Amino acid sequence: MIVGLDIGTKLIKVVALGGSRRRPRLLRFVVREVPEGGPEALPAVLLALFREERLPHDRVFTSLRTQDVVIREITVPFVQEDAIRRTIKFEAETAFHGASIENMVIDYSLISTGAEKSRVLVVGVQKKTVAGVLSLLNSAGIDPVGIGLDLGALYNTAAWCGVLPANEAAILIDVGTSSARLVVVEDGRIRAARAIRLQAAPVSLPAPPEGPAKDEPSEEKEVAELAHETRAAKAVARVSSEVARTLIGCRLRRPLAGVWATGGGPARAAICRGVAERLSVESHDLPLADLLGAETDGPAELGVAAIGAALVGLGVDTARINFRQEEFRFQRAFERARKGIATAVSVLFLALFLLCWSLQRETEDTEMRIKLSQDSQRALIRIIFPDEDQPFPDAWWIIEKRKKELEKRFQGKDTEIRSSLHDFRVVSQALVASKAKLKFRQLRLRQKSTHLEGEADSSEDVYRFRQELEKTATMNVASPNINSLEDGGVKFSIEITHVSG
Predict the structure, then answer these.
(1) Phi, psi of 121, rounded to the nearest 5 degrees
(2) Cα–Cα distance for residue pair 173/275, rounded to 1 Å
(3) Bridge-partner residues for 15, per DSSP?
(4) CB neighbours (10 Å) of residue 436?
(5) CA distance 373 to 148
(6) Would you call 219 exposed, middle or buried from its count of C-beta atoms within 10 A (0-12, 13-18, 19+)?
(7) Which terminus has fewer CB within 10 Å in the chain: N or C?
């Protein structure tokens, strides 16, 4: 369901369309009077209306009044649509005198294109006007997807109805109570658009009051009929004159096919006939009721702007005018949350980067410690085996080499070949496993035994260390000799006897 909303000076018109672009269906048509409280009372009325009719708040299209915008025809030095759209605000600056272009929202409708230039109809509106409309609708919980122009909605509706001739010109008139909206179309494109004020006071043109049941009309009835005819004649004369002036300014190249009228103003029929007679063309009504399936012409004609706005949501957007641009651009729920999501992703990426950086530093530190350990091993081996002048990959390689040499030398003899560095490694592993805080002062490694002397924070550390040493099958560990120190620590010595494996 797509909702078209038209807020007039006296009436609020809401149209709900379903179906498809080719075959839309009129689901709702609701008319409410504008409350006497003015704009402050509108949100409550809209809230109640949307709640009663069960209308969606996030698929609403509306339009601005022509009286609130400025329309100019200009020439731009481009023919590509993307180039025109990128530069239209700059090109339109010279056309809007006395107004700051930075404080306006600009859109356009293409009139014609030449070899290197294009004629466009530029429409500008003050940003504060758009902000006011959005603030009003947001107060009612409505976030319109698009904000067009009422004349654009009229043109959009007429184009969808299929009444615009392909190779001729046409006039569209939407007659209200106080003004008439005019659109001149040629070759299916807007050539001119404007609003015409009918008179200083709204033209209601009520029907003449019924007189007394006499054969001869009363004087009051004659006066009312004369006033009615006078106001109607003035409205017809004014609109006809303004239409003629507009056509002279357009300099149409195609013949005029006719006048198509719509709107809820009582003077619509008279104005349409008067304009058609002055231009010597036929007059028609837009066939909205038949196309939308409405029961009467009245509601459909009254809501032409709302219908044209709703058609945009179904994909029928001939006018292509939308003032929801720049800071007023429509954003869906995901787009509104996109900034927060982007911030969260950025923070997550930063945390991941810091974690990777920390792991990289730890890896580099570990590699550095391994390298220093390997260098220390090589230096130690060179001290132990000063006659080894060949390069070797690591410490254990030279130990295994010497072990094999000794095994070959003492082959057949009851002699165990062992490395003192092996015993040193066992002692180191036991120290790490016990988590004891020991300081070794002396470490004597012999073929059959090992003697350890050092200091510890407590005797418990020494016994934990001894327990880890006892787990080695090739060692018999004697009870430690422990003496107290003045600083609260202990001094210990341990004798280890090696057992053949």
Answers:
(1) -100, 110
(2) 10
(3) 4, 29
(4) 20
(5) 76
(6) exposed
(7) C
Q: Which residues pair with 442 in a beta bridge?
A: 453
Residue 211 to residues 208, 226, 230, Cα–Cα distance (Å): 9, 14, 19
pLDDT attached to residue 201: 41
Q: Which one, of 127, 83, 123, 122, lies nearest residue 102 by Cα?
A: 127
Q: Which residues of the chain have pLDDT under 70?
A: 199-230, 290-300, 332-338, 381, 384-396, 412-419, 500-501
What global pTM score does this model have?
A: 0.63
Query: What's the residue count for the chain?
Result: 501
Instruction: Identify the structural domains of the chain with CATH numbers, from first to last.
Output: 337-417 (no CATH), 418-498 (3.30.70.60)
How distant, in Å, are the alpha carbons of 49, 412, 435 from that of 57?
11, 99, 69
Distance CA 307, CA 150 (A): 10
Q: Are 297 and 208 in contact (CB under 8 A)?
A: no
What is the C-alpha separation between 208 and 221, in angstroms, rounded?
7
Strands 60-64 and 146-149, by their bridges, are parallel
Residue 204: the pLDDT is: 45
Q: Tell me, what amino acid is at 439?
A: K
How far apart CA 183 and CA 165 sit, in angstroms, is 14
Cα(230)–Cα(241) distance, integer angstroms:
16
